[in-house]
Amino acid sequence: AQASTSPRPLRIIALANQKGGVGKTTTAINLGTALAAIGERVLIIDLDPQGNASTGLGIDRRQRRLSTYDVLAGEAELRQAVLVTAVPRLSVAPSTMDLLGLEMAMASEADRAQRLRRVLAPLAREDVPEHERFTYVLIDCPPSLNLLTLNALAAADAVLVPLQCEFFALEGLSQLLRTVEQVKAALNPRLTIQGIVLTMFDPRNNLSTQVVADVREFMGDKVYETMIPRNVRVSEAPSHGKPVLLYDLKCAGSQAYLRLASEIIQREGRLPAAA
Ligand code: ADP
Ligand code: MG
Fold first, then answer.
1. Cα of 161 to ligand 2 centre, how many Å?
2. Ligand 1: which residue has its CA nearest to atom 16?
3. H helices, E strands: number in the chain
4. Which residues form the AAA domain (predicted)?
């Protein structure tokens, strides 16, 4: 067999769920950190005007001179907006409240849903030097099916859906899956479902356990075996500007995100990167 010299492929994953507070941002930060810890080179794109992914990675507002708004509006290059984080191999393109104005600013532009796709295209070019090459882009979407989320779905290879184990989880999921089908038909035929990750799971809560059973029955093996438990360390970490893996590596939340990262690369059939 011939030794392969081709670079590791770039995988673009949108973290989407139109419901707020289900763990999109927490999963972007901590899955990103876990993937970086096993040797992947990860870029988080913060597409939420709230900027929680940026804040949770320790990027304070004064550092966000250029943001995803400037990049999507065509006023800056992506690489000018990208900042390194305290986690080796993990970078972030931060957001600011400016993103709230994007929809209005682009109302008359025919390509407005394809902006992010075009911005990310150069990352996959073969002439990007090895040490600058990202292997994963994780897009943290806002809690709505708006123009920003459409941009993420149009740019992504796959959608990762964080789903909180609560009563209306499946209803919201059906709506999201319909949107994914629409985006597939209109904007991005290669879009797939990467998987569904159950978040804030509490084994002592009967409802939580019932929801898990229903989601697994409805979505089959699209649902990861790894569930992210409700864990206070996970919720404390952002106020320290750190991923939970840096804040408390041994806690149940950190360990779950490491397992999720390894389950994801295994399902993709990727070998772990040499860190
Ligand atoms: P979204 O981005 O979908 O709005 P977040 O990731 O911001 O959701 O999570 C919503 C809230 O729940 C945040 O305060 C976060 O710290 C908390 N949270 C998320 N995941 C967990 C978890 N596994 N255990 C405890 N709290 C969590
Ligand atoms: Mg969020």
1. 12
2. 235
3. 12, 7
4. 11-193
Cα of 121 to ligand 1 centre, how many Å? 30
> d(Cα 161, Cα 172) in Å, to the nearest integer?
11
Whether 6 is covered by a domain: the verdict is no
Computed on alpha carbons and rounded to an integer, the radius of gyration of the chain in Å comes to 18
Residue 23 CB–ligand 1 contact under 6 Å:
yes
Ligand 2 (ion): which residues have CB within 5 A?
A: 24-25, 52
What domain range is 70 assigned to?
11-267
pLDDT in tens, the chain (275 residues): 444 556 678 999 999 999 999 999 999 999 999 999 999 999 999 999 999 999 999 999 999 999 999 999 999 999 999 999 999 999 999 999 999 999 889 889 999 999 999 999 999 998 998 888 999 999 999 999 999 999 999 999 999 999 998 888 888 899 999 999 999 999 999 999 999 999 999 989 888 899 999 999 999 999 999 999 999 999 999 999 999 999 999 999 999 999 999 999 999 988 777 65
Cα gap 256→234, rounded to integer Å: 11
pTM over 0.90: yes
CATH code of residue 139: 3.40.50.300
Q: What total number of domains does the chain contain?
A: 1
